[in-house]
Structure formats: structure tokens, C-alpha cells
Design goal:
Elements (H helix, E strand, L loop, with lengths): L1 H6 L1 H35 L4 E7 L1 E5 L2 E17 L4 E6 L6 E2 L4 E5 L2 H29 L5 H26 L2 E3 L4 E3 L9 E2 L4 E18 L11 E6 L2 E17 L5 E8 L11 E7 L4 E7 L4 E3 L2 E9 H14 L6 H10 L6 E14 L2 E6 L6 E5 L10 E3 L17
Parallel strand pairs: 1-21
Antiparallel strand pairs: 1-20, 2-15, 3-10, 3-14, 4-6, 4-9, 5-8, 6-7, 8-10, 10-13, 11-12, 11-14, 12-13, 15-19, 16-17, 17-18, 18-19
Length: 408
């Protein structure tokens, strides 16, 4: 036996060294883990970064909102009633024109010559009529001859009037004052009747057509002020008033069409654009408000996270335990609160709220939060009742009653 041990002594030494190495490495690893645990404990309770805001009362005036389509009070695509070749163009694209201003003329030399011929015939017929009338009074001709002369005179004048109308149609005038669009014809071009030459739009004022649900009918009336905004000009507002309310309700949507007249002196609003219109109705009401981002919307109700301290949360949990009406999730929160070493540590408490109307980025809180309570506005996904927090309000969610789109 002693001989066998002597022969394998080297192997025993190697095995002992390997085992010693494993023990050493295991000890070092255990030391690092314990050091990490101690460092984690030394840091105290982990805190989640959130932003907060205090609930405050604001005066809101009830407001009806809708998206309106804009159209000109008067607008038309101008065209000729008769065919012809463009002789001259008297306007430039984008001009402002007056009612009756000459815009374009077609070649009319042959029509004018024919008109002069008819005028000469009418003048001759009138001379014959006057001469025969004098002879009739002298009883030199029969009444039938005078009647025939009168009929010829009327026919000649009618032909003159007809030809004059044809000549007039060769000259296109602005039917009303307005702003011209882009010219669509050129000199020398042959035009068929109805061919668009240019669009003419009266831009001030401009109509805004929109729809409201039938239950809003009792809140609107003709002459009521309207305020419109367009994302084309986010810093500008346009005022006007309701001009007409459709006397029937759409049976498919139960909406009623309303037309407002919007003042547009600088011609910034154009037909075909859309705008958001607002109508203030009723008396101002006082609401407790928060940013909409502060609300957590769930199928079982809306909630917010209210900022409190670990000590207060623990006291509330004890009081509920004594009253024996705590929910199943609350004892765990109370236990967490009791373990807090610092009763002044900021924590959150989930509270269910009843929400009301919205205005821009804000939402009204009807029940569940009191004025001055601090509410979490961002970072809610990481929270539950009893979670410790660190407040960082350098960046806040939007809380604007009248938000405007921004260009990035």
C-alpha cells in the first residue's frame, strides 16, 4: 500500500492543487456577490424617476369644436359663352379685379361688321316707318302698309339686339370683385364655349362649412361668434359668426350643417382648405385640471399616481387594516411601506379618478384628486402603489389649453 501511494503521490498533489484552486475561485466569487449585495443595500430603496405637477383649478368656458371646409362666398371658373380666338388678355395671374373689369376679348371684327349692317337696316326701316306714318295720317296709304312697316322696324331692331349680344359675349368681364387664379389660356388660342380661362374667387369674407351633432343645436344660433384656426398659420386666429343653420338633420349621421362667415382681409384662407372652428357656449365653469398624460386609461377605470410619503402611506394602510375594508392588493403595499427606513421617502399611491371634458392638452378631474395634490405626469409605467420615486421636473408634458401644431 505504501508503495502504491509513493508511486501515485504526484497525482494526489495535482488533485489537491486543483481542488484548492476551485475553492479559491469560489471564495472570490462569493466575496464579490456579497460585496454587491452590501453595496445595493447601502444605496437604499431604488427610486424611479418621474415628473410631477400639482392639480389646480381653472375656469373653462364650454366650447363646441368641429373641422370646417372653407369655400369662397362667391367663386366661379370664368369661360366664354361663344367660340372664338383669343384676341387680347387684360389680366395677370393672381390679380385682384373689380366687378365689371374687362378680362379677355375674342376676335370680333366680323361680328361687329355684321352688327353695323343690321344697325343700318334698322335705321332704314325706322325712316320708312316714319315716312309712311306721315302719309297714313294724310290718308295717302292704307293701314296695312303702316303695320307692315312697323313689323319690319321691330324685326330689324331685334336683329340688332341679337347681334349686339353676340358681340358682347366676345368680351369677358369680371362678374364680381375678387382674386384671380392662374391664367389657363393664351393669345391666339381657339376657345370652345365653356373652356375655363381663369378662376375668380371672392376671399373676404370666406365661408366655413362644418357639422355638429343634433344635440348641440340648442347651443348655437345665427350671429353667434366663431373662432377659426388653420394649421397653415398656427399663430393666427380668424374671427367670424354663424351665418346659417341647415333646416334639416342628416338622417345617416344625425348631424346638422352650419355655415359661418369668417373675416379674411389678408386673403390667407383659401377655398378648399380646412380649419378648426370653435364656438363658445354657456357660462364659464371651474374645473380641477391635469395634463392628459397624467391619466392612466384602463378598461376598469381611469387612475393617477399621487405623490405621498412612505410614513403617510403606512399610516393609511394601518387605518384601513383596522377598518377591515382593505383590498387584497393593499396589505402588500402596507408591508412595503412598513419596511421603509425613511418615513419621509417620496412614494406614489394609485388613485382612481372620474374625468370630465377635455380642452387641448388638459383634462378635467371631477372626483378622486384634491386641489394642490402632486400628481405624476410621466413615468407611470414603472410605478405601483408604494414605489419610491425621485422627482425630476426639468421636462414636463404639454399642458396647453389651446395647443398649436409645431414644425419639426
Amino acid at each position: 500500500m505504501q508503495g502504491w501511494f509513493s508511486r501515485n503521490k504526484a497525482w494526489f498533489i495535482v488533485i489537491a492543487l486543483v481542488l484548492g484552486l476551485f475553492v479559491l475561485l469560489g471564495g472570490l466569487k462569493a466575496y464579490k456577490v456579497m460585496s454587491m449585495i452590501q453595496a445595493y443595500k447601502a444605496q437604499g430603496t431604488p427610486k424611479q424617476a418621474v415628473s410631477t405637477m400639482k392639480a389646480q383649478y381653472q375656469d373653462w368656458r364650454p366650447r363646441l369644436s368641429a373641422v370646417a371646409s372653407l369655400r369662397a362666398e362667391r367663386g366661379a371658373d370664368l369661360s366664354a359663352e361663344v367660340a372664338g380666338i383669343v384676341d387680347s388678355i387684360r389680366f395677370q395671374s393672381g390679380d385682384d379685379v373689380k366687378a365689371g373689369q374687362l378680362l379677355l376679348s375674342l376676335r370680333s371684327a366680323d361680328d361687329v361688321a355684321h352688327l353695323e349692317s343690321l344697325k343700318a337696316s334698322a335705321a332704314l326701316a325706322e325712316t320708312v316707318y316714319k315716312r309712311d306714318k306721315a302719309q297714313f295720317e294724310a290718308e295717302a296709304i292704307a293701314k296695312a302698309t303702316l303695320d307692315s312697316d312697323e313689323a319690319n322696324l321691330r324685326s330689324a331692331k331685334a336683329q340688332v339686339a341679337e347681334q349686339q349680344a353676340i358681340v358682347d359675349k366676345k368680351f369677358i368681364h369680371a362678374p364680381f370683385a375678387g382674386h384671380l387664379g392662374i391664367r389657363a389660356v393664351d393669345e391666339g388660342q381657339y376657345l370652345q364655349p365653356g373652356t375655363k380661362m381663369v378662376t375668380l374667387q371672392q376671399l373676404d369674407p370666406i365661408f366655413a362649412d362644418f357639422y355638429l351633432p343634433q344635440q348641440s343645436l340648442s347651443q348655437v344660433s345665427v350671429g353667434q361668434p366663431v373662432h377659426a384656426v388653420s394649421d397653415t398659420y398656427p399663430d393666427l386666429g380668424f374671427d367670424g359668426e354663424i351665418a346659417a343653420i341647415d333646416p334639416q338633420v342628416d338622417t345617416d349621421t344625425r348631424n346638422v350643417q352650419i355655415r359661418a362667415v369668417i373675416r379674411n382681409p389678408e386673403h390667407k384662407l383659401l377655398p378648399g382648405m380646412f380649419a378648426k372652428v370653435g364656438i363658445e357656449v354657456g357660462q364659464p365653469q371651474r374645473y380641477l385640471t391635469l395634463p392628459q398624460n397624467a391619466i392612466t386609461f384602463n378598461p376598469y377605470g381611469e387612475s393617477v399616481f399621487v405623490v405621498t410619503t412612505a410614513g403617510k402611506l403606512a399610516e393609511e394602510a394601518k387605518a384601513k387594516d383596522k377598518a377591515a375594508d382593505a383590498e387584497s392588493a393593499k396589505p402588500a403595499a402596507a408591508a412595503d411601506a412598513k419596511d421603509k427606513t425613511d418615513p419621509n421617502q417620496l412614494v406614489v399611491k394609485q388613485v382612481f379618478v372620474t374625468v370630465g371634458a377635455t380642452r387641448g392638452d388638459q383634462i378635467a378631474i371631477l372626483k378622486g384628486v384634491d386641489e394642490g395634490q402632486e400628481v405624476v405626469t410621466s413615468g407611470q409605467l414603472k410605478l405601483k402603489t408604494g414605489t419610491a420615486i425621485a422627482v425630476h421636473n426639468e421636462v414636463q408634458p404639454t399642458d396647453d389649453a389651446n395647443p398649436k401644431p409645431s414644425e419639426e
